[in-house]
Amino acid sequence: MKINDLDLRRWKEYDEILTDSLWIFERRERGFTRTGEYHGNFIPQIPRQAMLRFTRKNEWVLDPFAGLGTTLIEARILGRNSIGIELVEDNVRKIREILSRTPGEGIQEVVQGDSMDPEVFRMYDRRYQLAILHPPYWKAIRFSDDPRDMSNLPDLNSFLGGFSRVLDNTLGVLDGGRYLVLVIGDIYDDGEIIPLGFLTMDIVLKRGLKLKGIVVKNIEENRGKRNKRSLWRYRALKNGLYVFKHEYIFFFQK
Which of 1, 77, 173, 238 is 20 to 30 A from residue 100's alpha carbon, by CA? Predict the structure, then answer.
């Protein structure tokens, strides 16, 4: 089964595609209609790398945490089809407006709904060849006032339970042998690290997926720390902590 459009006879020509496990990006990629305005959105290089490596043109990509549509924008630019699920109504409106101005090919659709609800996934009778999950890092950033928002769930067990429901809904529509990409970082809470990355990784592994890669990516422009670097350094020295400068990208095969 061929899962990308790469011609390995020309493998030396694919300089754009990253194969190392450490990704350092000085800035988010700009151009087209890419935007960094959304608090907590991920950089377009991540879904771009995933789609180039693990999809073919015209295949379908699912993003159950659409945010402001980064995955859908990159899918359009690359000629992939995509569907995003987003809880916040205003974000859905913005995604549709951005996509209307984005050049490219393919079908991009966004549905307002709760990705923990299996009924949302049943709105489309469709199978997907790639899933990209970028959930909230629990309560690190509050994305809305909606109690269904995973950033508003009251405790860690509730968050992991919510993630599990989204994961199960996603796996139910992902083709066998295809890839699921999870982008997540850890947080501090009550003076200690909560390793969300490894906790969620373990949940995926318990569903029987193969772990194909763990990529560590730098974090430079987290809005919560922007212009507060001295304060965060002081807090780190005072409390015996380390300032987060990385997040994880896990690659799984179903």
Answer: 173
Residue 218 sits at the vertex; the CA angle it makes with 193 and 205, to the nearest 5 degrees, is 60
String of b and e for 48-73 (b: at least 16 CB within 10 Å)?
A: bbbbbbbbeeebbbbbbbbbbbbbbb
DSSP-assigned letter for residue 8: G
- DSSP codes, 145-165: S-TTSGGG-SSHHHHHHHHHH
Instruction: Answer whether 48's CB lies under 8 Å from 79's CB.
Output: no
Check if the beta carbon of residue 100 is closer than 8 Å to that of residue 81. no
Q: Give the CA diameter of the chain.
A: 55
The three-state DSSP-derived secondary structure of 78-130 is HCCEEEEEECCHHHHHHHHHHHHCCCCCCCEEEEECCCCCHHHHCCCCCCEEE
What's the pLDDT score for residue 32? 55
Task: Say what the pLDDT of residue 149 is.
Answer: 82
Name residue 10's amino acid: R
**Hey, what domains does the chain have and what are their CATH numbers?**
37-251 (3.40.50.150)
Model confidence pTM above 0.85 = yes
pLDDT per 10-residue tile (average), the chain, 254 residues: 96 97 83 52 91 98 96 97 96 94 95 96 94 92 78 93 98 98 94 95 99 94 64 90 94 99
Interatomic CA distance for residues 45 and 201, integer angstroms? 21
Task: Yes or no: say if 130 and 38 are a contact pair by the CB < 8 Å rule.
Answer: no
Host H or E run for residue 204 = helix 196-205
